[in-house]
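Blinded run. Sample ID left blank on purpose so nobody reads anything into the name before looking at the predicted structure. Input follows.
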Amino acid sequence: MAGAVGAQVTVRARLPGGVNGGAVRVRLAGRADAVLKAVPRAHPGHLDETLRAQRVVEHMRGRGYPTPAWLGVGATATHVWHLMDLVDAAPAPELTPSLLEQLTAIIELQAGGACEPYDHWSYAWRVATGQAPDVADQTLEQSRLRRSLAGLAGYSSEVSALVERLRLVCADVPPPLQAPDMVHADLATPGNVLVRNGAVVAVVDIGNAGSGTRAIDLTTLVWCAFSDPLLDDVRRRLWARNLDLVGWEQAAVLAAAQILHMLEIPVRHRRHDAVPAVVERGHRALDELHALR
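Blinded prediction complete.
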């Protein structure tokens, strides 16, 4: 790592946040502190995926997108790592109307920003409709996730009924024809949004970023906005923006994919007590979307 960035690297402390992979603050000899993320090497293409994310970061920073610069990327026999600028800010403690409005404006910066052929929109359509993918079209992680999603209907009668409702809503929706925007694909984690004095100063954890429609990230915010009645007005505006961007059918596809992913997480981790709340929120989201048709 020192050879890649041209400075000795010393670990200082673990940083808060980081659901999928811990981040640590490091000192670079003769330079400012930075953030290091190192995760176990999951498959042979893992480093290539991280390099893809680095290219997305560089491209979007050139468009004014508030994500920290990546200083280096590399791998060992067991781990893949990347080093990025340290932002003097804290993870968002909770969602607020102001925070959602700021994130909505940041997502608009993603318009027309697609630069890598990693299409989250087509993937969401395949998840929502149950269509079989072209193997060459998905990463290993996507393949594993789809296999997990395929087993959801067998979890319980309540989950099966929701899955069936989602499939029916999306059954006749054609696949998207283009993927013009940059997609962050992980704005569901509050720790990925860094704030200072109530203002969003950075969006991080961009490792799964790719192309598609920015309505995917807006759909994530819609889902998060069910957490508090104070967010209802913002959520209505998010729904309206999604309909403007992609129309009702594709908005339904994106909502269905979001709901299925949110169901898959507690089922996979056997957090059985969390599943009923996800099912209830999933039906509520569909009810709201149907009311807008």
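Unblinding after everyone has recorded impressions. The longest helix spans residues 232-268.
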